[in-house]
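[09:14] KT: can someone run the structure on this one? pasting the chain below
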Amino acid sequence: MKANQKTARIAVFVSGGGTNLEHLLLAQEAGQIPHGEIVLVCASNENAYALTRAANHGVPGVAVPKKQMTQEAFEAALNEKLAEYRVDVIILAGFLSILSADFVKQWPDRIINVHPSLIPSFCGKGMYGLKVHEAALSRGVKVTGATVHLVNEIPDGGRILLQKAVDILPGDTAEILQRRVMEQAEWILLPQAAEMLCKQITEN
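[09:31] RB: done, structure tokens below
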């Protein structure tokens, strides 16, 4: 990043519908991420509706289809796009493709991820999407939530930036709980964490 750069350039990685992306874009338009700018959306699936959301907000979107590539080719294609758009920060927002340790090492303290639980609970290999909420309900816990953390080599590892608790209510299904966690935690925390990291980068 150039010393006189006022905003950090953000790429959002997605795989599906892009509801988290939508709320990041809305937060940006509302002035809630003044030290950052979403300049690129990368989808690991060419049919991801998130690309339509990006276009609706005037943000460039590209598909880098993981299923058609080796891991090395996939990450090389991602890096090519990140370089082209001069990206400073990566936000994983419902990105279901695994990134290698070698890729992550190139972005120390520059990748943030949102996980739909209070880490260290219900995280790790195989824990994503509805599976997290199913596990919380199966365990019988009364409180869950979401965590935004830096990704440094270890999935669901790295420094925790923000967490927010969400109550589990009688009669909850995994789908109902997933929606509540998104509305009460993920959609609030992601823009806050984006601004926190971008401010830190631009002021250092």
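[09:33] KT: thanks! The longest strand covers residues 36-43.
[09:34] RB: yep, looked fine to me
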